[in-house]
Amino acid sequence: MTETELLFNPFEPGYTDDPYPTYRRMRETDPVHDHPFGLWMVTRYEDAVTVLRSKLSVEEKLVNAGMLREQYDAIDADTGAGTILSLSMLDRDPPDHTRLRSLVAKVFTPRSVGALEPQVAELVDEGLDRIAADGGGDLVESLAFPLPFEVISRMLGLPPTDHLRIRELSGWLVRSLEPVPDDETLARVIAAGDELAEIARDLIAYKREHPGDDLLTAMIAAEEDGDRLSDDELVAQLVLLYVAGHETTVNLVANGTVALLRNPDQLALLRERPELAANAVEEFLRYDSPVQQTRRVTTAPFELGGKVIPEGSFVSVVLASANRDEAFWGPDADRLRIDRDNARQHVSFGSGVHHCLGAALARLEGRVAFERLVTRFPGLAPGGEVRWNGRINLRGPAELPITV
Fold it and tell me: Could you tell me the pTM of the whole model?
């Protein structure tokens, strides 16, 4: 491979532990990068916002060629789940996106989410109790994973499920959002999609027989009464809400804790001023984005950064890079500052019509978790080396040992 092709190499050792030197190099060298994987990578803040607020598509079927095109074709060819899951609102353009999003949007308004705070606080305290009883342990296992998983399960009205199995399947499925390095990994991604789709069908069948005052019942009722959701669309929305409802917040809580432990001055500041927790969450989202990249597809030639991206091109907006762009954030862009005035201007939730539906919920879960974590444990400290999950996109700790 040539030097240009290696400008972004997510498979090189150490990349997923710390991708930020690579992002800096891309911003400085080729901020609108035509990558040999068959995608264009956008790494500067202003360019990222331009793409996110544009009317570019999110539907991969419009991609002309390249490694990712071949990957999507392989998933669709080997399983029906790939086609079904592409029916989620995350993967559809208006008007389909608008129709699908409207079915669930009212549950995720700041007011509706705010009513969940007592439940979130109870779940956070349960996690902290587990940590206190053990004198520390793995923050991911004790708090970062069970908190958002239980919250989204309750919102959907789901019966008790095999959390560990769904966690494993979800971890494999989200690898479909990034280049897959080998056939074995691709096979596991495909199998995970199949199994999650079947689990979703079983949960929907259960909920038809046991309706309640919950989101999944409301989605089923909309599908039955108004013929607004097909069976496959219903499966796709449930898998999306289940996976996106916890995967991203796991990373927010875990990445934010890593950031605090590696910046003890900021940990001390948050402990002294817990009222900064809400702004600290915005800074955690900026400093180490739970979702590193998002994608768009050009439907016509698209000019950006002095280049013309051809029609049918896969465009990867590197959110994590935009959030560290010195041209926007200033010379301390690589520094954690939980009192940063403009931290909320990060792009970790995207922008435009596809702005993250669960943003208010993630903010609530993060704020409550960090407020209680730092006040409950004045002796919070690292308990060992962080083990990263090895993902390119939904990057975060797989294991985060702490002592209290």
Answer: 0.91
Structure tokens at 60: 């991969």
Tokens found for residue 347: 């792009």
- In this structure, are strands 381-382 and 401-403 parallel, antiparallel, or unpaired? antiparallel
SS3 35: strand
Which of 328-355 are b and which e, b meaning 16 or more Cβ less than 10 Å from the residue's Cβ?
Answer: bbeeebeebbbebeebeebbbbbbeebe
Contact 402, 136 (CB under 8 A): yes
- How far, in Å, are 3, 26, 40, 45, 287 from residue 7 at the CA level? 7, 7, 12, 19, 22
Per-residue pLDDT of the chain (404 residues; tens, 9 = 90+): 444 457 999 888 889 899 999 999 999 999 999 998 889 999 999 999 999 999 999 988 888 866 666 666 666 555 555 556 678 888 889 988 888 888 888 888 888 899 999 999 999 999 999 999 999 999 999 999 999 999 998 998 888 877 778 888 888 888 777 776 677 888 888 888 888 889 999 999 999 999 999 888 988 887 655 657 788 888 888 888 888 878 889 999 999 999 999 999 999 999 999 999 999 999 999 999 999 999 999 999 999 999 999 999 999 999 999 999 999 999 999 999 999 999 999 999 998 888 998 999 999 999 999 999 999 999 999 999 999 998 899 999 999 999 99
Q: Which residue bears the tokens 């494993």?
A: 168
CATH of the domain at 306: 1.10.630.10
- Residue 343 host element (H or E): none
Task: Tell me which residue range forms the domain holding 32.
Answer: 5-403
* Domains held by the chain: number: 1
Residue 12 backbone zone (phi > 0: left; psi -120 to 50: alpha; other: beta) = beta
